[in-house]
Structure formats: structure tokens, C-alpha cells
Amino acid sequence: MTPGPAPARDAGLQGERTSLAWRRTALSASVAALVLTRYGIVRADVVLTGAGVALLAAAAATGYGAHLRHAQIDRAVTLGASPVNRAAVRTVAVGVALVGLLAVAAILLAR
Fold this sequence. Notes:
Structural class: mainly alpha
Number of helices: 3
Number of strands: 0
Distance between the termini: 74 Å
Radius of gyration: 19 Å
């Protein structure tokens, strides 16, 4: 008796772990954004409040993007295709750079 075809799914579930890591990142960024927003409101500082709101929006986009990307990877792996998406890599890199620049600007303007 010959064994059937190998399963298309990876036994290590790397895609699921990566998706969960991005969701944890989004949750952590959301907490930081809420703390920053509250601090800005308490100090009546529009710049800090705006930075907190922007970070919260970025965290929400990250969480939603992680959900969409996981679905794409799941479909690609199920079909036996490559899950690599170069546009997603560029988008994440630009997003991280922008959030970093906004954080630095908020710190410098708060002085």
C-alpha cells in the first residue's frame, strides 16, 4: 500500500504563529497608543494626543492587515503556491518607518 499525497499544510503552523505575532504586535501598539493619547489629553497637548490617535489607527490597520494576510497565506499554501507578497513587505516597511518618524516627531515637539 502506497501512502497518499503529502498534506499541503505545514505541520509546524508557521503561518498561524506569524499571524498571532502580528496580532500581538497590534495589541501592544494599541495599548501604547491609548496610554499616549490619555497622557496627551491629561496634559492638554494636541501633538501627543494626535500622535496617540495616529498610532492607534496604525495599530488597527496592522491587526486588520494581519488578518487579511493570514487568509492570503492560508489560501496560497492550500493551493501549493508561494505565499510571498513583495508588496506587503514594502507596505509594512514603509508603515513601520512612518510610525517611527511620527513617534520621534511627537517626542521632539513635546519638549
